[in-house]
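User: I'll paste a sequence; please echo it back and then give the predicted structure.

Assistant: Echoing your sequence first, then the prediction.
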Amino acid sequence: MNYKKLSRLFLLSLILCCPLALSGCYEKPIEKKEAEAVPVRTAEAQLDTVQLYGYFTGNTAVDPVNIVPRIRGYLEEIKFNPGDIVEEGAVLFTIEQFDYKTSVEKAKGNLNIATANAAQKKADYDRELELQAKGPGFTTQADIDRTKALWDEALGQIDVKKADLADAEKQLERTVIKAPFRGKISRNLVEKGNLVDGSGSNPPTLATLNAMDPMYVYFQVSDSEFLNIQQMIVNEVKKILGDKYSDEELFNSATLLEIAQKEKLEMVISFEMRLLGQSGDPNSYPYSGIIDYSDNTIDMATGTNMVRGRIKNPNYVIYPGLVCRVKIPGKVLQDAIFIQEKAISHDLSEIYVWVLDEKGLPQRRTIKIGERLEDGRVRVLSGLNSGERYVVDGVQKVRAGAPITEMAPEESGATSADEPTQAATPQEPAPAPAPQESAAPAAGQPESGN
């Protein structure tokens, strides 16, 4: 092998490659482009005074009355159509009356006999008294006592026969079954012509009658929520009545309701309601009423108290058994800081927002949040001051210190602190849910927003 020839070729290749390598060293540097400004919308954190509400899931209900016979007989007439609105005292059913009319006539005859017998016994007694007045020897004290006893016995028989007549008349009256109150009646559960027996301990149900007005609403509140409602009511009553009643009286549920009714303060224990699935604005609560009952204990298994509200229902538009949502006023937050919920971001350990610094650049700020409101705002407990600007829209593209282009500011929806905003929220601050998760509240428990 010719080593000289190979060395010459190697040197020649080096000479040819060097200019290329050197030219690469002197290549012009690539200019870095400036980061493009991210378009965002911002708003100011604002102070506001907000009325909080508690939300609960409940059911409408009435106390139905079973229409039953109280005597034995054949069902003769049905005087209503299924589903009718019947007035108090309206005839619903009639039972065959012949036997009961006969009993009444017999009782009247027996009373007449007893009355006549009593009249005779009284005449005998009066005669003995006349003989006694004539002097000794005309009668004896034994005869006087005997006739007096017979007369008293006859008077007693009159009372017995009067009672028999009253019972017979009552039995006859029970052949006509009337509505005990105004309400909506069900279909008849027994057909005409059937023998019904109401004389036993388990009479058959002929129909059911619901008193539709007022309508009741039953719902469960947690023990802490119950205490919050109780405290709110106590505060309102004291505000109106001053020191007329003691705290001990006002914190007693039964006494408090008596005081509210006596002082005509039903508005301090009022609530609003809407039916689930009802058309229209989901944030509207077209029905209102008062809380007229709470259970006398807290259920240890669930930690809840059963509460009942009463609603006027003159047009019978609300039916028992419907699921509804109840809205009860809670505490008022004075001068609280609120931001829009959509501005909040989450990671595994923190809740944060992007706040604009003095140069107008976004900086990440960790915050703690509290109550969520119906209008999309959230209370900030710490980490943000009133008046600071924060990013509302475009938070996904924002980076710390990166330039932004600010679009038209969006109104935060806050109102003057002098006028409380009506907003719904649970009474206790809750941890924020994951961004793509939503949890449905359990029945009877407070909910946050609609």
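Residues 98-134 form the longest helix (37 residues). The two ends are 92 Å apart (CA to CA).
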